[in-house]
Amino acid sequence: MNPIVISPAAIAAETDPIGIGAGTAPPGSYVLCVNLDAPTSMTIGAHGTAVFPAGGYAYVGSAFGSNGLGRVDRHRRVAMGIHDVTHWHIDYLISHQNASLTAIVVAPGADIECAIASSLLSRMKEPPLEGFGSSDCTCTTHLFISGSVTHIRNQCSTVIQELSASSN
User: Fold this and answer.
1) What is the 8-class DSSP label of residue 140?
2) Against a cut of 0.70, is the pTM above it?
3) Phi and psi at residue 5, in whole multiples of 5°?
4) What is the spatial distance between Cα 132 and Cα 121, in angstroms, rounded to a whole number?
5) HSE (CB half, 13 Å, CA atoms) of 93?
6) SS3 category, 123
């Protein structure tokens, strides 16, 4: 499985290569790449208030329910302010005015959410908030930060490619 990098605009236009926008996406794992323009204090559900430094963020998730990777379109709509229900930890971050969803890296058909998170944890600096997005697993976090969103997107693509190579 090679990682596929998808722009939010392609999903909105229903032209993304795996059918997220069209509602025909397969299940799989994904990484939301988010840019935070300025240091920001926000409340993240039961985590309470936390300060997030400016930079590039990666949030690792998976979607194996009936809509598969179509869940990513919900995240895109939350980030755009079109859908205002905050259900997951990531909703609080991506809906903030200082945040922008810049890309989604997907691994269609691959159940590697926690493997991606584990690999990123070993490569990145201290996680911005322990327990973020990982309340249903034993991972330290599913949210990672880097100096730039481009760097973190490239790291995520590399991790997915390496996990793919090691499983073959």
Assistant:
1) S
2) yes
3) -100, 125
4) 13
5) 31
6) helix
